[in-house]
Design brief:
Layout (H helix, E strand, L loop, with lengths): L2 H16 L2 E6 L5 E3 L1 H5 L12 H6 L3 H15 L6 E8 L5 E13 L5 E10 L1 H21 L1 H26 L9 H29 L8 E3 L1 H17 L3 E6 L5 E3 L1 H17 L10 E9 L2 E8 L6 H6 L17 H11 L3 E6 L5 E8 L23 E5 L3 H11 L4 E5 L2 H10 L5 E5 L7 H11 L1 H5 L1 E5 L5 H9 L4 E3 L4 H10 L3
Parallel strand pairs: 7-9, 13-14, 13-15, 15-16, 16-17
Antiparallel strand pairs: 1-2, 1-5, 3-4, 4-5, 6-8, 9-10, 10-12, 11-12
Helix pairs in contact: 6-7, 6-8, 7-8, 8-9, 9-11, 13-14
Length: 506
């Protein structure tokens, strides 16, 4: 074996030892070739995937195609020294794996146009699973630091609501011996409703931040809505230390997972609050601002706290770096924030100096503004609710009773407190127009009931509307993603319930 052949053989051995897939792409013709590992990583053998870039793009997760194309184009134009992008590829079994796709133009023609690129695929699925565990752990730790404040945010309006309901109960008590004061009754109910809506907002914010997803679910979101949710959770922590200033410019939406973006904002708000000692809120300020610059949405979170010296500022995004005392955190919060923001195509920066406070800036790519829909002047408002048969399935008798009282005026309502009882009600007939079903019930979940009905009464499975007040497991979320049935998150407003019932008309 000659020296050249020996060098080539050693290179092949080195590549095999890395367990990476290696590809070669003819940019002009679209032809792609690779080593055996490139295909086996996805459960295929060489020859089972068409040898062209279109076939590989067809295996790429739809949410990752645009980012991959953009990163490749930036490198081909010479704006980056190499191409690197993390994406999901579909395996032969239909599952998804995460890979980091690296490449570099290795040949250009006389005019400088790229004609050939070589690179590697590395399976990073296990790393992604560990990152998810760290992300969720950090999220729960952040919420844990706010637990006392969040409890106050819930208990205070609950106390108000219970007091007002006691007033309402006393007004309608026939033993009270004086005429009904309708104005007092109406005021008590209105105040109780307002207080419970505050609890509802907190519950929704907690639900959003507590979601456990196996992957990003990027949707168009208004960063101001996500900020408001984070501010509601951190409000009590901030109020003990500083006054809060909002300066929200009108900004376009961004593509992001609301839970992960909310985690970034909550981390930054808690850090801003903890940079200021409690006890003198009138002397300190935390400002939250949104603005637009050069096609990017900017979110600034500033505080008048103690600030950071250059050595701390330089390391603030490093994993496990912290200036907090032992037991107050392991220093992953800002590192995770940076990872989340970077994955969204954004960046996060910090400006700080001792004695002059700190400003964190999150910069995210803006989505094109949607064209407002033109509303027709013709036609009526929402269609009238025809009388219908509704089955309510919930293991909480109180929930069954409240929905029966709410819907019984316009509909025939049957209630069941278990999946087994619901199956009996469906079998007994006549057919239900809508089945409102809780997702998590002992002895048989809403998911179990849907599976049974899909086999035994498929028309009834199609009219199911799920209700949930808990954090969804990855399995349950995957189930909901696969079916067209709507979901109501408890607590929900009457208007939201009626809208879903109208959209579920058969």
């Amino acid at each position: 074996m000659g020296q050249s052949e020996r060098g080539s053989f050693d290179l092949e051995l080195a590549i095999e030892a890395t367990d990476d897939g290696v590809f070669d792409w003819n940019i002009e013709t679209g032809a792609v070739s690779g080593n055996r590992r490139l295909y086996q990583m996805l459960g295929y053998e060489p020859g089972e995937i068409e040898p062209n870039v279109a076939a590989w793009e067809a295996l790429t997760h739809p949410d990752d195609i645009k980012g991959s194309r953009r990163a490749i184009a930036e490198h081909i134009k010479g704006r980056t020294p190499a191409y690197r992008h993390e994406l999901r590829l579909r395996t032969k079994s239909g599952a998804w794996i995460w890979v980091v796709d690296r490449g570099k133009v290795v040949e250009r023609d006389a005019s400088g146009r790229a004609v050939r690129m070589s690179g590697t695929h590395t399976d990073i699925s296990e790393r992604k699973r560990l990152e998810l565990r760290l992300l969720v752990s950090d999220r729960m730790a952040t919420l844990g630091t706010l637990s006392a404040c969040v409890a106050h945010e819930i208990n205070a309006p609950l106390a108000s609501a219970l007091g007002c309901l006691d007033v309402a109960a006393s007004e309608i008590d026939p033993r009270r011996g004086r005429p009904l004061d309708e104005a007092r009754l109406a005021d008590a109910i209105a105040v109780a409703r307002e207080a419970l809506l505050r609890v509802q907002e907190i519950a929704r914010d907690l639900h959003s931040l507590s979601r456990v997803e196996q992957e990003d679910r990027a949707t168009p979101v208004d960063v101001r809505d996500v900020l408001e949710g984070a501010l509601r959770l951190a409000r009590r922590e901030i109020e003990q230390r500083a006054t809060l200033e909002r300066c929200f410019d009108d900004v376009p939406q961004v593509a992001a997972d609301p839970a992960r973006l909310g985690q970034v904002f909550l981390n930054l708000l808690v850090n801003a609050a903890h940079a200021i000692p409690p006890g003198a809120p009138q002397d300190n300020q935390i400002e939250v601002a949104t603005s637009m610059s050069a096609g990017r949405v900017l979110i600034d979170i500033s505080d008048t706290g103690q600030g950071m010296d250059p050595s701390v500022r330089a390391r603030v995004f490093e994993p496990f770096f912290t200036t907090k005392p032992s037991g107050a955190g392991i220093g992953l919060g800002l590192s995770i924030c940076q990872s989340i923001v970077t994955a969204l195509g954004g960046d996060i920066s910090v400006e700080s100096a001792p004695g002059f406070g700190t400003r964190f800036r999150v910069s995210l790519p803006a989505l094109p503004r949607a064209v407002p829909e033109t509303k027709s002047n013709g036609g009526s408002a929402s269609p009238a609710m025809a009388r219908r048969r509704i089955l309510v399935v919930d293991d909480e008798p109180g929930m069954c009773l409240s929905l029966r009282l709410l819907l019984g005026v316009t509909s025939e309502v049957v209630t069941a407190t278990s999946a087994a009882a619901a199956l009996r009600a469906v079998a007994a007939g006549p057919q239900f127009d809508v089945i409102l079903c809780d997702l998590m019930m002992p002895g048989g979940s809403g998911q179990d009931l849907h599976r049974r009905l899909s086999v035994e009464h498929p028309a009834q499975a199609r009219v199911m509307v799920f209700m949930t007040g808990g954090v969804l497991s990855a399995e349950t979320q995957a189930f909901l993603d696969e079916i067209p049935n709507p979901v109501l998150f408890k607590p929900f407003e009457v208007e939201r319930l009626e809208a879903v019932l109208l959209s579920s008309r058969t």
